[in-house]
Amino acid sequence: MGERAENIEKQEDGSFIVTTNEGTQHQAPSVIIAGGLGSFEPRKPLVENLPAFEKKGIEYMVREPKLFLNKRLFISGSGDSALDWTIYFAENSELPVGLVHRSDMFRAHKDSVDRVCQLQEKGKIELYTHAEIKKVSGGSQLESIELHQKEREPKTIDVDYWLPLFGLSPKLGPIGNLRLEIEKNAIKVDHTLNYQTNTPGVFAVGDVNTYPGKLKLILCEFNETTLAVQSCYKIVNPDKKFTMKYTTVQGVKDFEKVV
Description:
By secondary structure, the chain is of the alpha/beta class. The protein has two domains: about 5-40 and about 180-235, FAD/NAD(P)-binding domain (3-Layer(bba) Sandwich), CATH 3.50.50.60; about 40-170, FAD/NAD(P)-binding domain. Helices cover about 20% and strands about 30% of the residues. It has helices at about 80-90, 110-120, 220-235, 255-259, and strands at about 5-10, 15-20, 25-30, 30-35, 40, 75, 95-100, 125-130, 130-140, 140-150, 155-160, 160-165, 170, 180-185, 185-190, 200-205, 210. Strand 14 (about 180-185) and strand 15 form a beta hairpin. Helix 1 (about 80-90) runs parallel beside helix 2. Residues about 255-259 have low confidence and may be disordered.
């Protein structure tokens, strides 16, 4: 708990060693991957030297709001997160906040859009529509951005922080490095039997897997997990017979006596 599986290594005896990002190792005869959609990462704008200023003036989320108060701050985006933070900083900072969006239509709630317009009229928000930030500059920290706006000349603006808040996108993350067969950004499995991957003993269930006719419904994922667990039981107990005890067909043992 609280750790992320980074690697799976198959041992000579057929078991697996799962290593987490904290270096913790777990040994098991079989592995079921239920990674959902993977890890979520921020959608990053296509700016050439963006990585050079990440955590040096460019942030993709607000962890400590006080850090941005009374700073020269620009925010890009059109969703609830972008507008909510723009409103918050505009209302609580002495300096105006810049809001940049490549269109004049916002995805955020109408009340938030109305509030942005009100704060713009009061000079608390500098609103730039049909605009994008195309370049960032600075030394050890971000110092300026280059704003490109429709039908206007590019403009260089001095800033302390830029928050590109374009939402999150699912990525397989470390799962994509486990030498498993990947298709459509998901783990390909054998859906005809037990949802095993191309590595015998490693199974994938839920949103993280893919196969012909895949439906991302929780009911289907219960079925996938049940079949995968049955196969794991056979791996762990090769000489034991598996008996299904709780079904509507077979009933519960001694249920009649209790009634």
